[in-house]
Amino acid sequence: MENMSAEVAMMFIRNCSNPDLSSVFKCTPISKWWTIRTPAIRSVLMQYESVLMALEEMASCSSPETSAKAKGLHGTLLKGNTRLGLVVET
Prior knowledge:
The chain is mostly helical. It has helices spanning 2-15, 19-27, 37-46, 48-61, 64-78, 80-89.
């Protein structure tokens, strides 16, 4: 599970359109991310459609393992309760 979290984190960093936020994540160990959680959630919500599109692309163009993970995460993010949960968290 830890590797999947790290992989998703790196995907977020690579696709984050906010260079300042991306830089914060690059310089902060994953174990300390709870301190920057709210800005990260807000950023994901603001870029929700872009995240979905990036996951679709990864699902079709990646290795079988990454593709499967991207498909699973894409399916999870398509559910309304996932987006609602992110809104509630902020």
